[in-house]
Automatic annotation (TrEMBL):
Homodimer. It holds the Pfam family BioW. It comes from bioreactor metagenome. GO terms for molecular function: 6-carboxyhexanoate-CoA ligase activity; ATP binding. The gene is bioW_2. This is 6-carboxyhexanoate--CoA ligase. It is an enzyme of class 6 (ligase).
Length: 269
């Protein structure tokens, strides 16, 4: 028996009443692991870099085995950036290489850089026109009901290539589900944790490209944008992201990229 376990937390009351988003988490857990998972989520919400949450919502739902679909972990690459400007330049280049227009890229970056504080979910942008398509304001589109298949082995294999911690573990799972969504072109994201400056660009075509510097240290503002195909069905896309139960199976390679010509590959499967 398995359960979907979701946590969201805020400071200053619930999100719906103006509380400032602190942290969120998503797991699909076996029955015996639910209690341990819930305790970990509570600790995360109460001991977070963004503050100590005074509103914590945890939702636990039993799921049926036939409701779960399996999707592969997208290929994983790491690149080198020495500062924010380099990080942004790499991200823009990678987005354009997988089909996001220059106009949409500039509008997406402008939207993220204009944020006064983080939003809970992602903004949806047309990958061709750069128009924002969702009407969720500061809530954004949440990606829920996902995890990795075989969590212990997944984390062990990531650790062997130097990818440790909850940030990268969760980001890879989320990015892989997002990349598999109908109508998705690419994702742009950087963390809202003040002490974590890493971000990424991800897509089914280009994989997950980890960019070490996407904001200044100490900034508590981050966010994500989903660039989607022009004319895609937003309702179908949103339902997949928010309601479809997905377990990510792992495999592929991790690349350490220097400049644009040299790659050193390390297998993780």
């Amino acid at each position: 028996m398995q359960f979907s376990v979701k946590m969201r937390s805020a400071k200053g009351g619930p999100h719906e009443k103006g509380g400032r988003h602190i942290s969120g988490a998503e797991r699909i857990l076996d029955e015996n692991d639910v209690e341990k998972g819930v305790v970990a989520m509570l600790r995360r919400a109460r001991n977070h870099q963004r503050g100590k949450a005074d509103f914590i919502s945890i939702k636990i739902e039993e799921i049926k085995e036939d409701e779960v679909i399996f999707k592969p972990l997208i290929a994983v690459h790491s690149c080198i950036a020495k500062n924010v400007a380099q990080g942004h330049a790499i991200a823009k280049e990678k987005l354009q290489s997988v089909g996001v227009s220059a106009l949409a890229i500039e509008r997406g970056f402008s939207a993220l850089l204009a944020l006064k504080d983080s939003i809970r979910g992602a903004m949806l942008f047309d990958a061709f026109t750069g128009e924002r398509l969702d009407n969720f304001g500061n809530r954004g589109v949440r990606v829920t009901k996902m995890d990795c298949a075989g969590a212990a082995e997944y984390e062990e294999k990531l650790a062997k290539v130097g990818l440790t911690g909850e940030h990268v573990r969760e980001a890879l799972v989320l990015a892989s589900k997002v990349a598999s969504a109908p109508g998705m072109v690419a994702e742009l994201c950087w963390s809202d944790d003040p002490d974590y400056v890493t971000g990424y660009v991800a897509s089914a075509v280009g994989g997950y490209i980890r960019i070490p510097i996407m904001k200044e240290m100490g900034s508590g503002v981050g966010g994500r944008i989903f660039f989607v195909k022009h004319g895609c069905d937003i309702k179908v896309l949103s339902e997949y992201l928010q309601e479809q139960l997905v377990l990510i199976t792992f495999g592929g390679n991790v690349d350490v990229e220097v400049g644009t010509n040299f790659r050193k590959k390390t297998a993780i499967n």
